[in-house]
């Protein structure tokens, strides 16, 4: 069984090639984090995830969410596609606080 899984999953070289292609800014659709993402990029990405989870759990449309967050639809689309380079961490946290007013952030030293 384990050998079947190994055979079906692409080699690391292929995974790296796909990751490199998908992390380009010109790619339409959702962006992915590079394997060497900074701490700030990871937090920004996770913040976008929270917003996307809110949208799915609330079953609201992108247009409605944009209105709640007071941003235009193209910016909302960027956010929902993890275009984190277009947003500051402060702005993303501000959006999350609108959706989750009782949000608590806990930082831990590694």
Distance between the termini: 36 Å
CATH fold node name of one domain = 434 Repressor (Amino-terminal Domain)
Helix content: 55-70%
Secondary-structure arrangement, i.e. CATH architecture of one domain: Orthogonal Bundle
State the name of the first-level CATH class of one domain. Mainly Alpha
How large, in whole angstroms, is the Cα Rg? Answer: 17 Å
Beta-strand residue fraction: under 5%
Global mean pLDDT: 85
Structural class: mainly alpha
Q: CATH superfamily of one domain, please? A: lambda repressor-like DNA-binding domains
Biggest beta sheet summary: none
Total count of strands? 0
Describe the structure.
The chain is an all-alpha fold. It has a domain of 74 residues: Orthogonal Bundle (434 Repressor (Amino-terminal Domain)), CATH 1.10.260. The protein is built from 6 helices and no strands. The longest helix has 20 residues. It is globular and about 45 Å long. The termini are far apart. The relative contact order is 0.12. The model has no long low-confidence stretch (mean pLDDT 85).
